[in-house]
Amino acid sequence: NTISVIGLGYIGLPTAAMFASRKKKVIGVDVNQRAVDTINRGEIHIVEPDLDMIVHAAVTEGYLKAVLTPEPADAFLIAVPTPFLPVQMEGDIPQPDLKYIEAAANAIAPMLKKGDLVILESTSPVGATEQMAEWLAAARPDLTFPQAAGDNADVNVAHCPERVLPGHVVRELVENDRVIGGMTAKCSARAVELYKTFVQGECVITNARTAEMAKLTENSCRDVQIAFANELSIICDKLDIDVWELISLANRHPRINILQPGPGVGGHCIAVDPWFIVSKTPNEAKLIHTARKVNDAKPEWVINKVKIAIADFLQANPEKTAKDVTIACYGLAFKPDIDDLRESPALNITKKIAEMHAGKVIAVEPNIKELPVVNTALRLVSFEEAEKMADVHLLLVDHKEFKKESFGGNCLIDTKGIW
Ligand code: SAJ
């Protein structure tokens, strides 16, 4: 049985590699020539612990190859991006753009034959799997699909969302339970059989729409909970209460578990997926929408805190001007102990401060060796240098390297509560 994975990114490549590691023949498809070449050399183009070894073994043993255009297979897994269309006006609700799913469906359609299985893994708005099946049916009028033929369909279709945590993908792919949303009972059964190749967690069966919503619900739940913590941090600041102490006290209640406030919500999922729900049901998804706005507003609140700190510093040191004030930003990644700077509130805040501030801005990020191309005079320094040099210290990420017993600097803004 040959398995084809369409889209060899953060989810597709590890998934392809897991099947190949169980000695299944896997054809990975990606439109990016560089990704295809890198994988065929037995190397990887993304950062994920342990993945390089698995891909290297799979390619050298001949179980995994990457190509630019689809080839025939028995199962097709689609793991392409599901971005949003550009918003027309600030404050508009972003609308999903399914063009990569449509392109993938049209690319695999000519390869389909009776008995094949197509699985959508990309995080998608409710209804996307049915839409994908419509695109497949339109391209292949000679075959039958579940929406018309039910369990007798020639081609089975299911939605099985990925739920792995970046940095722990290899372990979580194997250990996590898997939601299997077939368009019919037979579609689900076929998908379970396929995932059981490497999944040790339970494969729980539901329908496609519920599976789509389950994935969106998980990440929206986390977003709403983080928004609650972020709102608390702003309320406590106003009332002169230590929010970290407050949360640890409240969390002693047996049924309370408040998450941690921070400088905002980053990454590629938590700050994105709730919009799939809000765009579909804007009048009903009030709390989910508000949570998004609360979390998106947090970086501006942090920047304002920095402005106040600069003003306070200048008041205490009247001989100085803004140009003499050095600001240190600790942490640029989107969460602790990783090197991923994409969609990072910490990086965005640091960039904005570097743009607005007349004096020096320095950054500490132990997980990277050089700064990404930013259009500013920002400099990367060591923790010790920053501690000594800066007048205003802004902690943005709770990396393990920053958890010191005592901190030398005076003017502190600690968005993660570790100092
Ligand atoms: N954050 C806080 N406070 C907290 C926890 C997190 O501010 O108490 C922030 C982080 O700093 C970060 C953001 O939230 O900026 C997201 O980090 P995360 O660790 O919550 O999640 P991701 O984006 O790395 O991965 C999530 C996971 N989903 C859930 O935990 C429900 C993962 O299982 C999903 O597979 C992944 O999204 C995905 O691909 O959808």
Largest sheet: 8 strands, mixed
**What fraction of residues sit in β-strands?**
5-15%
Oligomer: single chain
Q: Pick out the low-confidence regions.
A: none
On the 0 to 100 scale, the average pLDDT is 96
Mind telling me the C-alpha Rg? 24 Å
Distinct small molecules bound, one entry per kind: ligand SAJ
Separate helix tally: 14
What is the H-and-E element order?
EHEHHEEHEHHEHEHEHHHHEHEEHEE
Structural class: alpha/beta
**Largest beta sheet: what is the strand line-up?**
3-2-1-4-5-6-7-8
Family: Belongs to the UDP-glucose/GDP-mannose dehydrogenase family.
Organism: Marinomonas rhodophyticola
Enzyme class: oxidoreductase
Protein name: UDP-N-acetyl-D-mannosamine dehydrogenase
Please give a structural write-up.
Strand 9 (327-330), helix 13 (345-356) and strand 10 form a beta-alpha-beta unit. The chain has an 8-stranded mixed sheet with strand order 3-2-1-4-5-6-7-8, sandwiched between helices. Helix 9 runs parallel beside helix 12. The model has no long low-confidence stretch (mean pLDDT 96). It has 2 domains: 2-201, NAD(P)-binding Rossmann-like Domain (Rossmann fold); 231-414, Rossmann fold. The protein contains 14 helices and 13 strands. It has 419 residues and is an alpha/beta fold. The chain binds ligand SAJ. Residues 123, 163-166, 218-219, 222, 226, 259-260, 262, 265-267, 269-270, 334-335 line the site of ligand SAJ. Belongs to the UDP-glucose/GDP-mannose dehydrogenase family. Pfam families: UDPG_MGDP_dh, UDPG_MGDP_dh_C, UDPG_MGDP_dh_N. Its EC number is 1.1.1.336. This is UDP-N-acetyl-D-mannosamine dehydrogenase. GO terms for molecular function: UDP-N-acetyl-D-mannosamine dehydrogenase activity.
